[in-house]
Amino acid sequence: MSGAAQRLRAPSRWRAWEYALWAAIWATPVFLGQHAALINEIAILALFALSLDLILGYAGIVSLGHAAFFGVGAYGAALFAKHVMPDPLVGLAVGTALGAALGLLTSPMIVRGTDLTRLMVTMGVALVLLELANKFDAVTGGTDGLQGVVMGPLLGRFEFDLGARVASFYSVALLFLAFLLLRRIVHSPLGISLQALRDNRLRLSAIGLSVQGRLAAVYTLAAALAGAAGALLAQTTGFASLDVFEFHRSADVMLALVIGGAGWLWGALVGAIAFKVLHDLISGLTAQYWTFWIGLFLVVLMRVGRERLFRPWTWFGKS
């Protein structure tokens, strides 16, 4: 194999630390079972962050309304479980498919225009869906939420328990599968072309590659993963409310990416862990002002820099 081919294949190879980190992630529901509910929330946010990272970090599509796909997946899975069948995996497929369908439907509005246009369009879609969910309260439950969602046993054997042990394993498993899929994609020719598109769209179109087709494809895939994250939330909590469409959902996942770093799949996982753990610790100390301390942390992160913040010996110019 030539030297150039080896350099291209090198980033796709698994490192030892990646195996170690995934082993640690899989072990957390076993050894930290008392925190299974928090682990479940982290896994769902990490999956949601992975979906945003795919379009923001790799394709350069900015979005402030990613909660639209999350909410559609949540309500789709909850309604399916309540009125059709309670099987979790089938409901997960329904939520994922609905997210993908919405992504495909709205992609023509995303692939054209400037970043400001995309910000407004994505946020507008989420707000429209929020209002529709509130309006059709006979279906969605309105401000009271969709209650009475009872899920069947996972794989026909594992009942969802109040301690969220089964839910945490379920969410971590789906996060792992999504990570494997996206890792394969971002290191494929499609993923490399997406990064080239992010850096210089005109140059990519000049060599004959379809810019709009790639943007639409990756946007639909990201919407499907966000729908899966929403479906997981509804299934593991047994509840879906208007909260899944709220702006703070889109803001929280954006903050997780800011903390972990966009354009790096592990950044979504690191950011989700850091954000949820900080939220849990700070809100336990001061429930009213936890957002202040999260904001202060982000200011320090931006001023100092992500690399220097975690390497204090570089603060005084030493490397």
Whole-number average pLDDT? Answer: 83
Sheet having the most strands: none
Structural class: mainly alpha
Give the count of helical stretches. 15
Radius of gyration: 20 Å
SSE order, one letter for each helix or strand:
HHHHHHHHHHHHHHH
Model description:
With 319 residues, the protein is mainly α. It has one domain (31-269). It is 72% helix and 0% strand. The protein has 15 helices and no strands. The protein has helices spanning 3-9, 16-31, 36-56, 67-83, 88-110, 115-135, 137-140, 165-186, 189-199, 201-206, 211-237, 247-260, 265-285, 290-304, 306-309. Helix 4 (67-83) packs antiparallel against helix 5.
Jot down its keywords.
mainly alpha, 319 residues
Short description:
The chain is mainly α.
Question: How do the strands and helices of this protein lay out in sequence?
Answer:
Blueprint: H1 3-9, H2 16-31, H3 36-56, H4 67-83, H5 88-110, H6 115-135, H7 137-140, H8 165-186, H9 189-199, H10 201-206, H11 211-237, H12 247-260, H13 265-285, H14 290-304, H15 306-309
Helix pairs in contact: 2-8, 3-8, 3-11, 3-12, 3-13, 4-5, 4-6, 4-11, 5-11, 8-11, 12-13, 13-14
